[in-house]
Amino acid sequence: MDRLLVLVRHGQSDWNLKNLFTGWRDPDLTPKGIEEARTAGRRLKALGLSFDIAFTSALTRAQHTLSLILDEVGQPGLETIRDQALNERDYGDLSGLNKDDARARWGEEQVHVWRRSYDVPPPGGESLKDTGARVWPYYIHDILPRVMRGERVVVAAHGNSLRALIMAMEGLSGDEIVKRELDTGVPIVYRLAADTTIAEKNVLKD
Length: 206
Hints:
One of its GO terms (molecular function) is phosphoglycerate mutase activity. It comes from Prosthecomicrobium pneumaticum. Catalyzes the interconversion of 2-phosphoglycerate and 3-phosphoglycerate. This is 2,3-bisphosphoglycerate-dependent phosphoglycerate mutase. By secondary structure, this protein is α/β, with parallel strands linked by helices. The protein has one domain (about 5-205): 3-Layer(aba) Sandwich (Rossmann fold), CATH 3.40.50.1240. The protein contains eight helices and six strands. It has a six-stranded mixed beta sheet, with helices on both faces. α6 crosses α7 (about 160-170). The longest helix is centred in the last third of the chain and has 21 residues, at about 130-150. The protein is globular.
């Protein structure tokens, strides 16, 4: 049984390029982001991978990334489940602000704490721990059972929703996961063992 799970952070978005806190705001991909998504699809196709089901968030940049990946692997009509449980972390009052402007307003140290701590949320927003509180149940109830049945699953989501998911899958601590960088448009291919632990992991990048 294959038990394949592929995770992909969306390609570069317009607000990534502009250095803005994005969160639940809904910008689309840049031309670079579109090419990153297509490259991800080509890398998956080169491994001979295809999928039985796809999951993504309720946000355009993740949905567009997934669509481009599925086009490249030759599965443009694949059944896709969209759910805000997989949305990016909500940055609250920081959403839409330039990161440099936020540092000028609240101080570099405070903004760093909001961005890189595990359990300290920005004003009106979510911490990574809060993000995990919605991602983990969704993974356990909706995604993992399909993988364990032998379905090949692809998930296109966001830096922090995927960090929360990877934290659970890899058994990482809060301190460990906040240091984990996820490149845009780079697939992470997992194969799970019969006990749901990771049997194999492959990051598809140059």
